[in-house]
Design brief:
The complex is a heterodimer of chains A (554) and B (74). By secondary structure, chain A is of the alpha+beta class. Chain A is built from 16 helices and 27 strands. In chain A, the strands form five sheets. In chain A, strands 1, 2, 7, 8, 9, 10, 18 and 19 form an eight-stranded mixed beta sheet that branches. In chain A, strands 5-4-13-14-15-12-16 form a seven-stranded mixed beta sheet, sandwiched between helices. Chain A has a seven-stranded mixed beta sheet with strand order 22-21-25-24-23-26-27. The radius of gyration of chain A is 25 Å and the shape is globular. Chain A starts with 24 loop residues before the first strand and ends with a helix. The relative contact order of chain A is 0.12. Chain B has three helices and no strands. Chain B is an all-alpha fold. The chains are: A alpha+beta (554), B mainly alpha (74).
């Protein structure tokens, strides 16, 4: 019996097949994985109804995506699911790198303080999906989860999409204004639309195994290049909740998946990693190869692709799951505005461009890690091994050792519509906002990102009450729909004002009175200025909304 | 803007450096020499650190052997 009990979600005969009148939906989402479920919750939090279609009736089979990075946790926090995830998730701090039988070095992750969310957690994908399903069920009037509903055709309507869905009760049709295809790396919607992923396929085969060990087994992340105890190229072990450990074996090009997934053989390998004495239970395994590839465009008419359906990478760096959630974060506020006629449909082009850059970054990082882990030629191996051997004695070479670069959020600086940026300092236009501890006007402690929420925000640094009052009044008049003005001062001066108990807001954002950040609903900085000028906010906001023109001039 | 030095940078120490470079390879197999070269390049590249100069040095070295392959995507 495994450590996780899979719950089956109940299939219900859809209204369309139960004699109900078909209703057109603003949004249909294909795929109830982390990406599809997050999109449903994000839209529901903005008051938009959607239907989620999934061909299965349970959560992820196996742990799959297990590492969730800070930016993703911040998004999950906005979606109301981070608390459970942090409580359940585990973190490792110490890592060790080995070459052959020799330990080259150890490192201790010392994450920066002053953020609500940790740098990352390890948490099995089935838990992430379970928490997302539970959260989605808190929106009974807005989110309809339809299990065992398999999409078999997608046809264009003039201003939307007509989907054919197969169920245990037969087939029905569903019309929607927009379809989000979040149906994974083997996306059937992508295939039905005649699209494919372009990129590189790697021949190396990997065996991924979850085993349960006793609680006292070390939490360190350990990575072996050319391990002395295994025939393969590399081995990685790290911890997940429930004393489940993930072990990744790089089997090489010629491995036979059918042979390698034999459980007795798998456990023999595992024994050589954990030692013969440690009690050890098999949970799950999978043999995989991977691609680094993406769709050329993520939007096709009224069909929008997100997550693995749009782009795939190797698992090293945890860039698949994290990248997918960040797609949702970028997309949903825009889609909500377009559906409400608050923005032209061209606003969605920014999703494609910004997340296209993110996909390219993830692919680049993934490609570099793969090159380091799987040297292709003799000279490549010579340099790789030189880096490893130098790393034992020379700290600089440790920076070149590449067993995965953990997902970092994409910086949209320089892309069309981003800016102006009239300040120096790291928190530039295009970047996601850094969190920092704050104290609210009512004296309660909180976090900056919680205050930003999912509204467009102007974050204004002020010296006195008069400046704070003026910024608020000007902001209310500037004409950006739903704009929230948040002032930061030595003390919280207005109802939505904040103070900065540790000085971290000022040190992360700049500290002159008047400094203003215009922040998008996905908490990325849109523009910033040294002075508080609400007319400039409106101009910047509108320039981003008119994305098609920005794009033409880019 | 940094620029790869093409004029003499050894300041009279060139012959001695060259002799030491060759001596460092003494008694090594071809494989070991390759390993030494790789380590040396990494040490020196880290010392230089400058992205532009390193790119110019790589391009100059490659061009003097045979035409460069397609540039690596950024």
């Amino acid at each position: 019996m495994g450590s996780y009990t899979y719950q089956r979600f109940r299939y219900r005969t859809p209204d369309e097949l139960a004699g109900g009148r078909p209703i057109r939906r603003p949004v249909a989402i294909v795929g109830a994985g982390p990406v599809g479920l997050s999109a449903a919750i994000d839209l529901a939090q903005q008051g938009l109804p959607c239907v989620v279609l999934d061909d299965n009736d349970s959560v992820s089979d196996g742990s799959r995506a297990i590492c969730w990075a800070k930016r993703t946790l911040e998004i999950f926090d906005r979606l109301g699911v981070a608390r459970q995830m942090i409580a359940k998730g585990v973190t490792w701090k110490v890592g060790r790198i080995y070459h052959g039988g020799r330990e080259l070095y150890r490192f201790d992750l010392l994450p920066e303080g002053g953020h609500k969310m940790p740098a990352f957690i390890n948490l099995q994908q089935y838990y992430v999906e379970q928490y997302l399903v539970e959260r989605a069920c808190e929106f009974p009037g807005l989110i309809e989860l339809r299990w065992k509903n398999r999409v078999t055709a997608v046809a264009d309507l003039e201003d939307g999409v007509r989907i054919t869905v197969a169920t245990p009760d037969g087939e029905y049709h569903l019309e929607c204004d927009w379809l989000i295809a979040a149906d994974g790396a083997r996306s059937s919607v992508r295939a039905m639309r005649g699209h494919s992923l372009a990129g590189q396929t790697y021949e190396d085969k990997f065996l991924i195994v979850d085993v349960r060990l006793e609680a006292s087994y070390p939490s360190e992340r350990r990575f072996w290049f050319q391990p002395s105890f295994d025939r393969g190229e590399s081995v990685l072990i790290h911890r997940q909740p429930d004393n489940v450990f993930r072990i990744d074996f790089q089997l090489g090009r010629d491995a036979d998946p059918a042979v390698e997934r034999d459980v007795a053989r798998v456990m023999e390998r595992v024994r050589r990693v954990v030692g013969p004495q440690v009690p050890c239970q098999f949970e799950w395994c999978s043999v995989y190869t991977f691609r680094c590839a993406r769709m050329a465009r993520f939007i096709d008419g009224h069909v929008i692709f997100a997550g693995d359906a749009a782009h795939v990478v190797s698992p090293f760096g945890a860039r698949g799951g994290n990248g997918g959630i960040q797609d949702v974060d970028n997309l949903c506020w825009k889609l909500a505005r377009v559906i409400r006629d608050e923005a032209p449909a061209q606003l969605l082009a920014s999703y494609e461009i910004e997340r296209g850059r993110a996909a390219d970054e993830n692919i680049t990082n993934s490609r570099r890690t793969t090159a380091f882990m799987s040297p292709g030629s003799a000279v490549e191996r010579q340099f790789r091994d030189a880096v490893l051997e130098l790393a034992a004695d020379f700290p600089f070479a440790r920076g070149l050792v590449n067993s995965g670069r953990l997902s970092q959020p994409c910086d949209y600086a320089g892309l069309p519509g981003i800016g102006p940026d009239a300040l120096n300092g790291a928190m530039r236009a295009g970047r996601p906002c850094s969190d920092a501890p704050v104290i609210r006007a009512d004296g309660t402690p909180g976090w900056l990102l919680e205050q930003l929420g999912a509204a467009p925000c102007a974050l204004v640094f002020v010296d006195d009450e008069a400046q704070a009052a003026r910024a608020e009044a000007d902001g209310a008049d500037c004409g950006i729909r739903g704009l929230k003005v948040i002032t930061v001062g030595a003390r919280a001066m207005r109802a939505t004002g904040l103070s900065d108990p540790e000085g971290l807001v000022r040190s992360r954002y700049g500290d002159a009175a008047g400094v203003t950040y215009l922040i998008r609903p996905d908490q990325h900085v849109l523009a910033r200025w040294p002075h508080c000028d609400p007319r400039a906010w409106r101009t910047a906001w509108d320039a981003y909304g008119r994305y098609d023109e920005g794009r033409a001039s880019a | 803007m940094s620029e790869l030095r093409v004029a003499d940078g050894f300041g009279g120490y060139g012959d001695e450096f060259y002799e030491r470079l060759i001596a460092a390879h003494q008694g090594l197999s071809e494989r070991q020499s390759g390993a030494l070269n790789a380590r040396l390049i990494l040490l020196l590249a880290n010392q230089i650190g400058d992205r532009t100069i390193l790119a110019q040095a790589l391009a100059a070295a490659r061009a003097s052997v045979s035409p460069a392959p397609e540039a690596v995507r950024e």
